[in-house]
Write a structure and sequence with these properties.
heterodimer; A: 180 residues; alpha+beta; four-stranded antiparallel beta sheet; 27% strand; elongated; B: 252 residues; mainly alpha; 10 helices
């Protein structure tokens, strides 16, 4: 038993037509508050035009290595109904922000089938990590939220390095305090 | 704008700035103490927004009076502050801070709606800018109010207790200053009585939906002027102003 609120993965779109990229997660009692928390944690400074939240519990993940190990041992007990799955993949280790991006949707009988079909369907984006979730589990922000996302990005703020603290402390240590 | 009108507007802007500044300070006391990390960040954001709004109102006042915002904030004594007592009360529990923020946000949203059409253009422009953030604040506190009011027995009891103590204080938000009439007649600010009616029309049904009751019997016995403060403002300002007053000439 845990007294923590459930975790929601957060996907952020930086510009219209840009990809929805996983930026991290928030805890929240429900999707509505998860979206609100996501706005505060991930969209206050960076550019953002839309957010998705997805309950962590419905996401199934595989790395490329896990796929390789599963070869031949694939779970064939796919008895569930065919539904649409959203597919996300991480394609690079090079950048500082190596998170999964939304790449599209496909129909499958189970998350595992969706994962295996994703690697074939989205062949042009060879993934290092794959996530799938029922497409219906994605809770998007409302288009009316847009002014709320834009409000904070247009605001002036100072980064810590703009205070010249290190430079000022060096001057003070050299006994040059107050010379400017 | 003539001198009399200018002074009346300067007085009104100080009221608006002081309400936001003191509320921002109270909200900032939750930093590191909110019930969950995400809410800690969100409420700190709201506190920063309110502080930014205070700075905008003081700035508009400064354009009329030539005063410097930092001097206004750090070198006025408690008796010179014009905020309502609602915002200076200690932060209380989470329900108390949420209910206070909700009642204040609801009033501010309605006021900003009118100020966007103010005949004093700088005020109208500032209101339009602030309104987007305030709409978000109201949504934030509205979502919380619902969950606290309809949540557990304990969350409901705490929220009801907060409303019981805050409702009478909230009435002070709608008290006119002596020279507000001239500003209203010039189309610069809305009528306070109208704001109060709209505010009640908005918050009463929402509070009821959240399972919360308003005890109308507990209204203040007299109108409290904005020159009167509780002892809590003295302690708050002594903390808020302590660093600036260590070296009044320091540049930041």
């Amino acid at each position: 038993m845990t007294d923590q609120w459930p975790r929601y993965e957060v996907f952020k779109q930086d510009r219209p037509d840009g990809p929805f990229r996983n930026v991290g997660s928030v805890h929240a009692p429900d999707a509505e508050l998860a979206l609100m928390n996501a706005r505060d944690v991930f969209a206050r400074r960076p550019s953002c035009v839309a957010l998705w939240v997805v309950p962590d519990a419905v996401i199934v993940r595989r790395t490329a290595e896990e796929f390789a190990r599963e070869k031949g041992g694939r779970d064939e007990r796919e008895t569930e109904d065919i539904i649409q799955y959203a597919v996300f993949s991480k394609q690079s280790q090079r950048q500082a922000m190596t998170y999964v991006d939304y790449v599209g949707e496909l129909a499958a009988r189970s998350p595992v089938e969706a994962l295996h079909r994703a690697t074939e369907t989205f062949r042009e984006s060879p993934g290092i990590v794959w996530w799938v979730c029922p497409a219906s589990a994605i809770v998007p922000s409302d288009p009316d939220d847009l002014p709320g996302f834009a409000a904070a990005t247009g605001k002036m703020f100072r980064m810590p390095n703009q205070y010249h603290t290190i430079f000022t402390m060096q001057k003070i240590r050299r006994g040059e305090e107050g010379d400017d | 704008m003539d001198d009399v009108m200018g002074q009346a507007l300067a007085d009104r802007l100080m009221v608006m700035g002081d309400d936001e500044l003191i509320l921002a300070h109270r909200n900032s006391e939750w930093a590191g103490h909110a019930p969950i990390l995400e809410e800690d960040i969100a409420f700190a954001n709201i506190a920063l927004d309110e502080m930014g709004h205070a700075s905008i109102w003081y700035g508009l006042r400064g354009e009329l009076t030539g005063e410097d915002t930092d001097r206004l904030i750090f070198f006025r004594n408690p008796g010179q502050y014009r905020n309502v007592q609602l915002v200076e009360l200690p932060k209380g529990d989470w329900a108390f801070s949420m209910v206070r923020q909700y009642l204040f946000d609801a009033a501010e949203n309605i006021q900003l709606g009118y100020l966007k059409a103010s005949a004093y253009r700088p005020l109208a422009e500032a209101a339009a800018k602030i309104a987007t953030e305030e709409a978000y604040h109201l949504r934030h506190t509205g979502l919380w109010l619902r969950r606290l009011g309809l949540g557990t027995e304990e969350s409901h009891a705490r929220t009801q207790a907060a409303l019981d103590s805050l409702w009478p204080y909230a009435q002070q938000l709608f008290m006119s200053l002596p020279d507000d009439t001239a500003l209203f007649e010039a189309g610069i600010i809305p009528d306070a009585a109208l704001l109060r009616r709209e505010w009640e029309g908005k918050v009463r049904p929402i509070l009821a939906e959240c399972g919360l009751a308003i005890s109308d019997g507990a209204m203040p016995r007299r109108d409290i002027p904005r020159t009167e403060h509780t002892e809590y403002l003295v302690a708050l300002l002594s903390e808020l102003q302590s660093v600036a007053r260590l070296d009044p000439e320091a540049e930041w």
